[in-house]
Amino acid sequence: MTATAPKSATGKPRPSHLFYQGRQRRPLIDRAEGIYMWDVHGRRYLDGSSGAMVTNLGHSNPRVLAAMREQMDKATFAYRLHFENEPAEALAAEVAREMPGDLDRVFFVSGGSEATESCLKMARNWALATGQPKRWKIISRYPSYHGSTMGALGVTGYDPLTEPYAPMMVEMPKIPAPTCYLDRDNHSMEERGRRYADMLTERIEREGPESVLAFIMEPVGGASTGALVAPDSYYGRVREICDRYGILLIYDEVMSGAGRTGRFLGADHWGIVPDLVALSKGFASGYAPLGAMVAPPRLVEPVLDAGGFPHGHTYAGNPLACAAGRAVLREILENDLIANAAARGDSLLTRLEGLKARFPFIGDVRGKGLLTAIELVADAETMQVLPPELNAYARVVELAYERGLIVYSRRTRGGREGDHIMVCPPLIVTEEQLDELFESFTDALAAFA
Ligand code: PLP
Known about the structure:
Aspartate Aminotransferase, domain 2; binds pyridoxal-5'-phosphate; 2 domains; 16 strands; aminotransferase; 37% helix; PyrdxlP-dep_Trfase; 5-stranded antiparallel β-sheet; pyridoxal phosphate binding; transferase; PyrdxlP-dep_Trfase_major
């Protein structure tokens, strides 16, 4: 039980029939507005991680709430095989406008794992429809996270989440994620980036190129790697390798998409046009469960011609979630929040870098836009990890929580060792609010030191 365990009026822990992944308890939420949240005891928290990097737009945006209310008065659900709906049609067109290259077909789902699953299945259906039935392997990276359903776990490189289910799932081939900051050699970062990309070629050759269907990656890493950004040389090279072997390139932008990194997609930083894109989280900013797979006609048309895409989820494309997603997208675009993410992100990275001088256990500071993280280590020179029993990643989160600041953490380096803390406030954050965030964060780190 933590210091923040919820209490009933009698002072005893509040009983609950609910359970999630552990025994940790949290207070009941009362309300939320902008970047702040209040529990039922009136305590205020600064949402310094946008939940789990979700609430890009911040809480209780009046325009989104109005759009949802308006839709609620019309129809909250209409099954897609019985009716089409205007919010879904309009949102698909608006998403297509923001996507690079020929990515203009949108398939709605209700979350990130469903978006990943849809990409994996779409890739396979495309291979079948185009006479390539031997292609089925999807190479991914280690560490990585692509979702909690069995297909998504098969391409996920994060031991604590995958190991229990190993006998029950198809484990796909993995190559190392480009953790160039850990390498101690004489090569430049760009050379290292090329080297990590070339590991894809080696793996494709080892697997047999005719059996490989796709490569899936997060352009800016999420919780499994703590906002990992590869050297610029990596991105174009990976695209070239996929093209050379006729392999689809899937970008999992569930966390990095919808403006979080300072461009609409992470891919946009490097001018990459992926073959499939998974979106969720900030896409609906927590207002409704919503995600999407975005694909080009060159993949979709052969699949539909060959008899259709045998995949879908009941809640997909429901009018209420799409009305929320549409209002979120408009607010993000019309208020220039992507530019704000870029500017505040630069400021955030500079501030985090500045903490290194005071806290020698901060080994690496990384990220793009408002997707940033610090890695905590025993020795910043060698990047040796802290003893696992210290539980540094969880302790810093608790110390921040006690100070009214929410940040996010996970074990990094595949989940077995290493600690990182993600600092990812909503895209609406101001410079003054970053001052406030930093005061609490610095205080939490000082308490940990
Ligand atoms: N892909 C990435 C990159 C993610 O960060 C996540 C969630 O953290 C997912 C997929 C899974 O999304 P969801 O939790 O909505 O199923």
